[in-house]
Design goal:
It is a multi-pass membrane protein. The protein is mainly alpha-helical. Helices cover 78% and strands 3% of the residues. The protein is globular, with a radius of gyration of 27 Å. The chain starts with 7 loop residues before the first helix and ends with a helix.
């Protein structure tokens, strides 16, 4: 659809007057959340790569979410800038703003759907592992897991392509706004299908599966063998803990994204119920800040409640500490040797007599 055939005021339907203080506040908040999301998800990915015990089927899907959350965190800022949310001044050219707008909306949609599909796969994996434990080997095969992970990306890449076609930069006065510009019928059909397939259906499926998982874990019968009973009790507690962590991740995701779904639904079907969005407060909150919280909260949940991820983080921290500590010690010893030429001559002479190289001197010092 040609952008010139659309009235910008009808698309926006909002008061453009805005205080710089409000814009600055949202910019600072989004900066903090984005930085936390980037660091947290990066650490989750590195922990998974470096820790053998974390390479389970469930963790593969969790890391898949972490990768998509990194995408979301990276594309939030270009989209935020293209929409004129930083200040009233134009920071980027019109052509670049159009490209950033299209790609930002596209990859944000991809990231959201990848996370939803990963959550569904996690719930299926937990369901089979607990309710049908003998069949989990099928889902745990490398080929099956790789196929599922690939589908979580192919589906949103294909389904989200309308964003590339219909997303445009709308200019009003000295501000720019990133909006999907299409007919009402296309907008209603696209959003309705997306809402049902990638929001309602996943919630329904995960609710059923996790309800069955919780029921199975609680009703697992006791055995006559005390040793076996202790092992079952330990395994049951482990399943309960993992299930609580995963349900927390699911709840956090949908709590953060639900306000945007409600806002878009009301704006589409009952626009009279939404007050004029002065300073783009609703857009900043529901479209940027809340979804960003979703990308930042998963690492917090994992490192707070998962002993395996917490141990992996501790090991990584110790490795980083010892690495820099060793570097500083070598540097400190080198500085002391430079400060005393007589002492340096003695070290070199001793090393020469022993047949040692310069690198050996540094290590032994």
């Amino acid at each position: 659809m040609n952008n010139s055939s659309v009235q910008p005021t009808k698309i926006l339907n909002q008061d453009l007057s805005c205080s710089d203080a409000v814009t600055t506040l949202f910019t600072v908040l989004l900066s903090i959340v984005t930085l936390a999301a980037f660091i947290g998800n990066f650490v989750v990915i590195v922990s998974f790569i470096k820790t053998t015990s974390l390479k389970t089927s469930t963790n593969y899907y969790i890391v898949n979410m972490a990768v998509s959350d990194l995408f979301c965190a990276c594309f939030n800022w270009p989209l935020f800038a293209a929409e004129g949310m930083l200040t009233s001044r134009q920071f980027i050219s019109d052509h670049l703003a159009s490209v950033v707008c299209k790609l930002g909306m596209y990859f944000r949609g991809i990231s959201q759907v990848v996370s939803v599909l990963s959550l569904v796969l996690i719930s299926v994996d937990r369901y089979v592992a607990i309710v049908f434990p003998l069949k989990i080997i099928v889902l745990d095969r490398r080929g099956v897991r790789l196929a599922f992970l690939t589908l979580t990306w192919i589906i949103p890449i294909v389904c989200g392509f309308p964003y590339v076609i219909y997303t445009e930069v709308v200019k009003v006065d000295d501000k720019t706004f990133c909006r999907t510009v299409w007919s009402r019928l296309l907008r209603v059909v696209f959003n309705f299908i997306g809402f049902v397939v990638f929001y309602c259906a996943p919630i329904f499926v995960m609710t059923i599966l996790y309800a069955r998982v919780i029921k199975t874990v609680r009703n697992r019968p006791d055995t006559a063998d005390k040793t076996q009973d202790q092992m079952n009790s330990k395994r049951q507690k482990q399943h309960q803990k993992i299930t609580k962590i995963l349900i927390s991740i699911v709840a956090a995701f949908f709590v953060c994204w639900t306000p945007l779904c409600i806002y878009l639904s009301l704006k589409m079907f009952h626009p009279d119920l939404i007050a004029k969005d002065k300073c783009l407060v609703f857009v900043a909150l529901f479209f940027y800040l809340f979804p960003s919280f979703s990308t930042a909260i998963n690492p917090v949940i994992l490192f707070l409640f998962s002993s395996n991820y917490r141990q992996a983080l501790t090991n990584m921290s110790l490795q980083v500490y010892y690495f820099f500590n060793k570097k500083f010690r070598v540097l400190g010893h080198a500085n002391r040797r430079v400060g005393s030429s007589h002492g340096l001559d003695n070290v070199v002479l001793t090393a020469y007599v022993r047949g040692e190289t310069a690198s050996t001197i540094c290590v032994k010092s």
